[in-house]
Amino acid sequence: LFRILHFAAILLGLKMEDQIKQLETKLTFLKENNEFEVTQSAVQAKQMSMLSTLRSIREAMVSKDNGGGTTGGISSSREVEALKEENKKLKIANDKQRYRIELLVGNLKRATPDVIDV
Q1: pLDDT in tens, 23-55
Q2: Are 62 and 72 in contact (CB under 8 A)?
Q3: Helix, strand, or coil here: 112?
Q4: Which of 19, 27, 36, 118 is 20 to 30 A from 2 in CA distance terms?
Q5: Could you give the CA distance from residue 54 to residue 20 in angstroms, rounded to a whole number?
Q6: Considering the entire predicted model, what is its pTM?
Q7: Phi (first) and psi of residue 68, to 5 degrees
């Protein structure tokens, strides 16, 4: 009988020790998880701060590119290529107009050399 009681006490003691170890493990896990949540919220706050800074920088760049406008900047390479093509066409038209003007001025000088003295 003594041995049975002694054995039961040992089993209860082992069960109690196991329960204590489990509780300590759970407590450690909860502490680490809490620290993670605190760290995570601090990181998220910093990320939000950086995001707002980046947005303000982007808005400043867009407004600078548009001469102070707020409609948004050139956003695609397709638009850039279209603008370059338009620029080429305008240069060609400008060169044609310049040639015509020079031709007209030259003809006017030959036709009336006394009146026009350019």
Answers
A1: 777 777 777 776 666 667 777 888 888 888 888
A2: yes
A3: coil
A4: 19
A5: 50
A6: 0.34
A7: 100, -5
DSSP code per residue over 32-100? HHHHHHHHHHHHHHHHHHHHHHHHHHHHHHHHHHTTT--S-----HHHHHHHHHHHHHHHHHHHHHHHH
Maximum distance among all alpha carbons in the chain? Answer: 144
| Neighbouring residues of 95: CB distance < 8 A, sequence distance ≥ 6 | none
In the block, tokens 């800074």 appear at 53
pLDDT reported for residue 11: 58
pLDDT band for position 98 (50/70/90)?
A: very high
